[in-house]
Description:
Shape: globular
Order of helices and strands: EEEHEEEHEHHHHHEHEHEEH
Structural class: alpha/beta
CATH topology: Rossmann fold
Number of domains: 1
Oligomer: single chain
Amino acid sequence: MPLAEIEDLHVSFPSHDGALTPAVRGVSLTLNRGERLGIVGESGSGKSLTGRALLGLLPPAAQWSAKALRFDGHDLLAMRAKDRRTLCGTQMSMILQDPKYSLNPVMTVAQQMRETFARQGERLSRRAMRARIVEALAAVHIREPERVADAYPHELSGGMGQRVMIAMMVFAGPRLLIADEPTSALDVLVSMQVLSVLDEMIARHDTGLVFISHDLPLVMSFCDRVAVMYGGRVVETCAARDLANAQHPYTRGLLAANPPLENPPAELPTLRRDPAWLSEEFAR
C-alpha cells in the first residue's frame, strides 16, 4: 500500500469576474514509504498547491475536489477537520520555502519550537522541553544550539533558519514530509549542507518525501522518482536517474534551458509551449 495517494485532484480560484481559473487539473500521484518524489515545473504549474492539498493547507478561496486523498490507510476526505489537523501535526509535516517568511519574527526560536512540539503532543516540563529543543537543534548540526534557541529569526542566516525549520518539522519523525523549495533562498554551498541534514533526518525516520523544486539537476541527484508538472497537469513521470532521457517536449525544453557549466551553448534555447500539452493525451 502506498504511503500517500492523490487521485484526480482539481484546484481552482475565482477571478475578479467570478469565473473559475483552474490551477491544478486532474493530478494523480502516489508516494511509497521511504521514497523521495520530486515535483518539478515552472512557477504556477501547481506544484505547491498539490502538496498543500494533501495536508489540507489550501487557501480559503480555493475551490477543490478529488476522487481520493489518502495517507497511510487514512481517507483524508472523510476525516474530521480536527483529526486531520492532529495527523498533520504528528504524522505529516511541511517545510516551507523561505524561513524569513515562515518563522514568526517576534518570537524566539525556542518559543516557536516549544509551540510546535506542544502541538505534536509533547507534554514536558519547561526544563525537559528546553532540553528537547536544544537536542533538536543539535541534531541538524547547528553550532551553539543553546544560543540559537534564544535567537530571533532576523539574527539567523538563511541556512541557519532553514535548519531550524527542518528541526521543527522533522525531529518528531513524521511519516510524510513535503519540502517546498527548501533551498531556493540559499547559495550552493549552504544548500548542499541543508540537503545533507535533510537527507540524514529522512533516513533516520524512514520518511516519505515530496520534494518540490525548480532545480532539475538537484532533483535528479536527490530524489528517486520525478513528476513533471505543466499548467496544473502531470505531463510526465519517470525515475530520477532517467530524467535526462525524458520524452515529453516540455521536459526536454526544461532540460535544454538548464545549460551545462562546461562548454555552454552560445545561445540559450527558448521553451516554446504548445496548448496541446494541457490536454489529457499529453499527460503520461
